[in-house]
Write a structure and sequence with these properties.
With about 550 residues, the chain is of the alpha+beta class. It contains eleven helices and 29 strands. The strands form seven sheets. The chain has an eight-stranded antiparallel β-sheet with strand order 7-8-13-10-11-12-9-14. The longest helix is centred in the first third of the chain and has 38 residues. The protein is globular and about 110 Å long. The chain starts with 9 loop residues before the first helix and ends with a strand.
Length: about 550
């Protein structure tokens, strides 16, 4: 009999702790006579199994880290939008990768190609005659000559409004009114020139597998830029009920749009287009969507060193490297990226080796993206409010979003869990638990701004449902050409009953999103629905995100 259980070996105590109380009492009563050898052997076996499990787990994690964290710690940049404090003196080109700096010394680059016009928004107006919405934008411009060059090139604007409102602006009828001359027809279209960074990352992820499981990023700002430009066709004349808008134009020029609320959903979104209080928007001219990263751009000429069936170029290391983009004779090509020990004993960073196919090109351009703060730039308490691109200064009015840090000590366990789930555990047919797990993974990347509430399946009978195309966040980060997919499709005949299977994901505003504008959180809900849609068979569900306080 064991007098005191606490005097037994720790391994034996651990085995006894898993026994029911009555069984443990009987074992202790006859411990010395019958059970001591067996329990010692059982404790030793359990310790060996635990050690084997620990080593197997460590080996599996090491292999996963080698596969998914080849760069060790890497940080994906956040995006925000830079708004000029003063109008440009003339039409100014903005090249993809143009550097901007903030007072904290962090680097930012333009997300794509665009331009600034010498214009400012003097007044934004909205009215509701009948069921239609009339929107007016009064613009001043610095140029002393004709306004035609500005209108022919086009005016870029950022629309801080829900997706349905942006789509209504694009689908509306528009005119430009000037002090002299007849009203002329405008076309309003989405401008995707500021998505060039995502296109490059799309090409990079083909061979740089560390990017694969964490894309697409949440980049809402580049998707809300629209282009106002003179129509090449004659268009439609200004309706009689809008002719009074011409009489108030004495300086500058005015954009006037007639937007038809095709559904209650669109009408509710358009009601968010309110005249701003002080500097609140909702339309901002001459935006530059920017990402928080540095860019090293290098040009190489043949002959290139060969490594097997590929070319391999070695560059001096840079800090916080996360992606490389390669173009040969101006055409993007997939490339792999590895770090190698530097031959310089004083080097602070490993060298970078970029490998790409042998294509016989004359010029190879390699862009290294580095110096990102990752999630820190999206969550830092004192966000930069000013960016500078000499000689101009820009205001940052919206929070940086989409940044993440992968492979660091704090997030490595979560990163390995995500990689393990996506590559091994996730079944081809999702369960409710998979739905929650995928959303949980992405919510963490978004700074816990939303809280998942519920998912509800429903059959929707609405001919107009889904008519406004939600521009999926899978494009251009994952899909090459979005125009290959159609949101509508139309109704085959008047006798048809349009029934749509809809999966509605509902989210609450979480503590991290208390200060975020509602339109950004609504976009975030649709972003999560867009990411989730890649796991469903086409046409099985239309997946929609919904913010509970909309």
């Amino acid at each position: 009999m064991a007098d005191d259980e606490r005097e037994l070996p720790p391994g034996v105590q651990d085995v006894l702790a898993h026994m029911p109380r009555e069984m443990r009492r009987r074992v202790l009563a006859d411990y010395e006579t019958h059970y001591a050898p067996f329990l010692s052997m059982l404790a030793g076996w359990k310790g060996a199994v635990q050690e084997h499990y620990r080593l197997s787990e460590a080996s599996s994690v090491a292999r996963l880290e080698e596969q998914f964290f080849p760069l060790g710690l890497w940080q994906f940049p956040a995006q925000t939008v830079a708004l000029p404090q003063r109008p440009a003196p003339r039409t100014t080109e903005v090249a993809f990768g143009s550097p901007l700096t903030d007072p904290l010394g962090s680097g930012w680059i333009a997300s794509g190609d665009g331009w600034l016009q010498p214009t400012t928004l003097r007044e934004f107006g909205v009215s509701w005659p009948d069921r239609d919405c009339v929107v007016t934008l009064d613009l001043d411009y610095l140029a002393t000559d004709s306004v035609d060059p500005i209108l022919e090139r086009g005016q870029l604007a950022f629309v801080a409004a829900p997706e349905e409102a942006v789509e209504a602006l694009v689908c509306g009828a528009w005119w430009v009114l000037t002090p002299e001359g007849e009203p002329r027809t405008l076309t309003v279209s989405r401008y995707d020139g500021y998505m060039e960074f995502e296109r490059e990352i799309q090409m990079a992820r083909m061979n740089q597998r560390h990017l694969d499981l964490w894309l697409p990023p949440f980049y809402p700002y580049s998707r809300k830029v629209v282009l106002f430009r003179l129509s090449e066709s004659a268009g439609t004349p200004l309706p009689l009920r809008l002719e009074h808008l011409s009489r108030g134009v004495t300086t500058g020029f005015r954009f006037a749009g007639l937007l038809r609320a095709a559904s209650e959903r669109t009408a509710a979104a358009l009601r968010t287009l309110k005249p701003p209080r002080r500097e609140g928007g909702p339309v901002f001219l001459n935006p530059i969507p920017v990402v928080q990263t540095a860019l090293t751009d290098t040009i190489f000429y043949p002959p290139f060193p060969r490594l097997g069936q590929e070319h391999a170029l070695r560059l001096t290391g840079v800090p916080s490297l996360f992606a490389a983009a390669v173009r040969q004779d101006g055409r993007a090509v997939p490339a792999s990226l590895i770090r190698l020990p530097s031959p310089d004993p004083l080097a602070a960073e490993p060298d970078v080796q970029v490998q790409f196919p042998q294509t016989g090109a004359n010029i190879t351009q390699i862009k290294l993206y580095h110096g990102s703060l990752g999630a820190q730039s999206a969550r830092i308490l004192e966000l930069p409010t000013v960016l500078e691109k000499a000689p101009q200064r820009f205001t940052v009015s919206f929070p940086p979003l989409g940044g993440m840090t992968v492979g660091g000590p704090r997030d490595r366990a979560e990163g390995v869990r995500t990689a393990w789930y996506q590559s091994v555990l996730r079944p081809p047919l999702l369960t409710e638990g998979d739905l929650v797990e995928i959303i949980r993974q992405k919510q963490g990347d978004l700074g816990e701004m939303l809280r998942f509430r519920s998912a509800a399946r429903r059959i929707v009978h609405d001919p107009n449902f889904g008519g406004a195309h939600w521009r999926s966040y899978l494009w251009p980060s994952l899909l090459a050409r979005e125009e290959s997919f159609s949101a509508g499709g139309g109704i085959p005949s008047p006798e048809s009953t349009p029934l749509i299977q809809n999966l509605l994901l509902t989210f609450d505003r979480a503590a991290g999103g208390e200060q975020a504008p509602s339109f950004l959180l609504a976009d975030m809900a649709n972003y999560l629905a867009s990411v989730l849609s890649q796991y469903f068979v086409l046409s099985t569900f239309q997946i929609e995100g919904h913010l509970s306080d909309e």
